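Pilot study result, target chain (485 residues):
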Amino acid sequence: QHGSESKELVQTIYAAADLLGLPRNSIELSRFLDFTRKWLGSRICATGKLSEFLEFLDLYREGGGTLALCPPERPEEEFAGPSHEDASEERDAVKLLTVHAAKGLEFKNVFVLRVVSPSFPTNYKETLFEFPRELSPGNYRVEKADDQIHREEERRLFYVAITRARDTLTLYGKKRASKKKGAEIPPTYLRELADDQAIKHATSVRDPISVQREEVTLETPAWVTLAAEAVRGKIELSASAIEAYATCPMKFALQKRWRLPEEPSAALQYGAAMHTALKDFYEAASRGIDRTGDETIEIFRREFELAKIDEELQRKLYERQGEEQLRQFIALRALEPKPQVVCTEKSIRFTIDDIVINGRIDRIDCLEGGGVLVLDYKTGAPRNTLDAVTSIQLGLYWLATELEGHRVERAAFYNLEDNTTAETESVKKEKIYDKVIEVAEGIRNADFAPRPGFHCRNCGYRSLCPATVETVFAPGEKKAARLGV
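Predicted structure:
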């Protein structure tokens, strides 16, 4: 049905596998090609083009679909969504599962890690609000304290974990420093099992295994550098992209070049809703309409309702903060002369050498002397004067505004948290040019090495970054490490 498109798609997959160093005879590539051909022959395939296939893969993953190494017996089952049965169950491989996910399954060898409080069993934590027993199905007649119910549930969960083993069971926990025999075994489950006379003949307590640790380097994975191969000639950057690269080149590569999705933070979504409300406030003023505080807050609420924030308490705190800041902002504006707003959300696009700079300026005001003020709202921590003077963002906005024919007198951050401004009356153009060119050269040279720091704590790419992966131990010639119980 899609002959030429099918050949082109398969050839693209082979080319991608070659670039990633994946053998063409590997079971993973063979299985993925089988999956692709079934999609091409299915009713859900309309054009058979790469763009449609990539869109389908995104939807397939979002729907919880997984690709087993062994194909299903019936082709239509391939796209039926996630299945509780793993067709590759008998394949010799290590499976990492939570205890809950392992319910109903059985394995030849089972390893349970960190069998020591507060990891397993976990400590009981009192809830902020006590749920009425009368509304809890099955528990309202139980005359037990909540902490006792928690301990019993943890014990039942541990029973599930150890009964998944068919041949061998290995439990790991951190030994305690003690000269008394048996006291070095962690309390609770491990010590109970070690002291159980009924199973003593089938158990053994072993010292940690000594292995050698190889040095872990922060080398950039080969697949990350592939993102730079398509960058030739002109390159497009925004102020946020330049700052992102300066903070961590690895995150820039994953986010901007590979376009791997990262869940937008609550702070980012909150900031977007605030900017929308302020944009409406000044656009309405330009039409002779004075928005009240309640009207502007209602616009903010409507925008913020669309935000995807799991923690309801966090959502409520941000919503309350936004309402207070907007109310104070509008109250202060009523005490000041109205600014002559030239434009809001002004799109910019210009070049530095062969580098295209794009972005969006929150607001440009006309000043009495004929010059203009470039303004950028900040919904996070307040910025100071030093931040404004050294800001690449304000510098680029300054240059872009001058190219539009305006005489820029000042550029400023407006801090919504405390209604203050941080201004600069000049920009160092050479430093801005040098920074932009430096970042562009780093991208073209595939310089995407990670730059660890405090920002790693909240990074959405921790699981992909070599700077934040778990340390791996293997035989070598370096320092000794201790593993086990």
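One observation from the pilot: The first strand starts at residue 107 and ends at 112. A full batch analysis is planned for the follow-on phase.
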